[in-house]
Description:
By secondary structure, the protein is α/β, with parallel strands linked by helices.
Amino acid sequence: MMETLEILQNNLSEPSVFTSESFIAYRRKKTKKFNALFPRYAILGFFPKLYHWIRKNYPVTIYDFVHKPHPYYIFQVQGISVSYVFPGIGAPLASAILDETFALGAEICLFIGPAGVLNKAIPRGSLLLPTRAVRDEGTSFHYAPPARYAEPDADLLYYTKTLLEQSQHPYFEGITWSTDGVYRETGSKIQRLREEGCQFVDMEASALFSVAKFYGKKIAGLFLARDAVHEMGWDPLPTIAKATTRVVDLFHIGVQVFLHWEKQTIENPLKQKGCPK
């Protein structure tokens, strides 16, 4: 008889003995930094070079007491406060930083990052909107019951899609495959997942969706097509001009999503206007 996998033995209703709140309290005490206010809105960006761009374009307040290599840049846009953080690479680290971001006070998050495509017809530099994620990583099972998919918040997904359409940026939407095994993407698995409807491949989306749902927070994501994987191998895809501009486009779309959300919250605090229910 095969033993039950440990990853399927999580009691999600049992509290953890070590939490992001306790770690943040420890770091505040150790560093003597007691920043009280944290933005409701947060961008998790898998583009560390965006720190430099943000610093050049916005006055920023830096929260670096939690993790020095992953500071939060706090800035103002049209009356709302937004944080930006590079959450590292891979589901475990990114999920831990998202957990801490919620503990600090964030409620609505958008992650932006690179992804591979399973369809070579999708050009490099295209914007990609993940509508759900296949859970082929381990972290999500510590936050959500076993299931094939994890999903973004429906309302935030709707707002993000609406902003993409209004921006007239060409984009592709579909299922993403979130995997820990970047060097174990086999041809048969790629074919099977593509037949299922997977369009993209990443490392974090399903875990981030699961963390947000566990805490009752809102999250959605946007990708930038960077390379392709298919049955014949890996294809870095042709280099695109103005790659930095595309990353900044993702950032601006995220900020616009927050601005529209804030506007609708003020106008109708009990129901997000226009969201499908």
